Amino acid sequence: MNRASLNTSYKKPIVGVLISRSNVSKLMRQEFHLKYTHMARANKIAGITLYFFSPRDINYADKTIAGLYFDYQDEMWKQKSFLFPNIVYNRGYRGSLNVTKAINTFQTNGVLLINTLSGFNKWDVYQSLAKKKELQPFLPTTRFFKKAQDITTKDFETFLKKRTKLYIKATRGSRGRKVVSIEKKQNGYECSFFINTLTIIQVNKTSEIIDILKEFFGESNIIIQDAIDLVKIDNRIIDLRAEVQRNGKGEIEVAAIPVRIGQQFSPISTHGDSFPFNDFFKVILSNSEKEINMIRNKIEDILVQLYTSIEEEYGPFGEIEIDLGLDRNGQLWFIECNAFSAKKSFIKAYDEKTITRSFLNLLEYAKFIYFKGN
User: Fold this and answer.
1) Domain range annotation of the chain
2) Do 309 and 301 touch, CB atoms closer than 8 A?
C-alpha cells in the first residue's frame, strides 16, 4: 500500500497512541483492555483517526505504522498501515530506548505530543513549585541527596529531632516502587517499603537505616521529606489522586478526584482501595453536601494552580495526575505529580460515563492543539 492511498480517508487529526508490545499483542488477540476500549469508545464521539501501536510497528524508512484501530461495525480490533500521526499520546514504557527513539523521530517530523514530558523529576518539580509563594504552604519540607550513602547519621538525628516520621523517595520513580518511610519508635526505628508486598524492618541505629537505603535505592538520586500526618482509617493512610486535564477548548478540567486508601500499615496508598470523591467524604467521613462542595472547590483551586505552574516550567500537558494529601487538621499537601497517568485508581473508582469523558477530553484536546497550529 503506497503512502498516497493511505491519506484519502483520514479524519484529522491523526492520533497515534504509543503502547507496549505486550498490550498490542493483547489487542490483536481481542483481549479486553479497559483503558484502550474506553478511548476507542470516546473516539466514536470525537470522530478522528485513532490508532494504537508499539515501537516495533514503526517503519521509519516509509514513515508508516502498522496500527491497531477499533472497527465499530465488527466490534473488534484490526490492524492496517497508517501514516505517521499528527499527534502522539505516549503510553509506552518511559525508560525504553525504542520509545525514546520513536518520540525523537516524531518530534523531528513535526508530530505534536499530548504531554511535553513522559515523566517528572520529584526534586526539580519541588524546586519549581517552591518558587511560587502561593504554593509554598502546600509543600512539605524537602531536602535533596545525590545518593543514599551521602546521608549521614547526623542528618537523620537532625531530621528526627523535631519529627517522628520521614519519607525517602527516588527523584524518579512511580507507583510507590521507590519510597521508604522511616518512623522513630521508642526502642529504635521502623523502616517500611513496598516491593511486591509490604516490608517492615525494625532497626536500632540510624547507621542501619542508611544501609537499608543504600541497598534499596542504589545509585539513585533521592529526596527526604517530612511525613504528612495524613488522615487514616484503621491504620490505612488516605490520599487523593486527581486526574487533571485540558479539554477541547484548552481549558483545565478536573476529571475526577479518586480517594485512595492504602493497605494497613503501608507507607503508601498505592496497591490499596479507591473510592469516588463524593462517596468517600459523604459515606465514610459523614460530611454534608455543603462541606463536600467547599472541600472540593478548595482542592480544585489548588489543582489548577499546580497544573498551570507545572506547565509554566515544562510546557503544555493534556493531562497530569496530581497526588494530594489531607492531614488531620484539614490542611492540603502536594505529594507528587505524574505525567504518565496509570488511571488505575480512577478506573477502579468511577463509572463508565466519567471515564469515557476523560478520554474524550484527551481526544478533543488533541483536536484543539492540532487546529490551533494549522
Assistant:
1) 3-113, 130-137+230-372, 141-226
2) no
Q: What is the pLDDT of residue 273?
A: 86
Q: Does domain 141-226 have CATH number 3.30.1490?
A: yes
Q: What is the pLDDT of residues 69-90, one digit of tens each?
A: 999 999 999 999 999 999 999 9
Determine the number of helices (DSSP H) and then strands (DSSP E) in the chain. 11, 20
* Coil/strand/helix, residue 314: helix
Q: Are 226 and 166 in contact (CB under 8 A)?
A: yes
- Say which CATH topology domain 3-113 has: Rossmann fold (3.40.50)
Q: Measured in whole angstroms, how far is the alpha carbon of residue 229 from the centre of its chain?
A: 23
What pTM value is reported for the model? 0.92
In angstroms, how far is CA 307 from the centroid of its own chain? 13
Alpha carbons 97 and 2: distance in angstroms, whole number = 29
| C-alpha distances out from residue 21 to 15, 40, 41, 101, 211, Å | 18, 18, 22, 15, 38
* Alpha-carbon span 335 to 325, nearest angstrom: 6
CATH fit for domain 130-137+230-372, picks 3.30.70.580, 3.30.470.20, 3.40.50.300, 3.20.20.70: 3.30.470.20
**Percent helix / strand / coil, the chain, rounded to 5:** 35, 30, 35
CA distances from 344 to 26, 96, 207 (A): 18, 22, 37
- Write b or e for each residue in 183-217: b if 16 or more Cβ atoms lie within 10 A of its Cβ, otherwise e: bbeeeebbbbbbeeebeeeebeebebbbebbeebb
Q: Are 169 and 179 in contact (CB under 8 A)?
A: yes
Helix (H) or strand (E) holding 123: helix 122-130
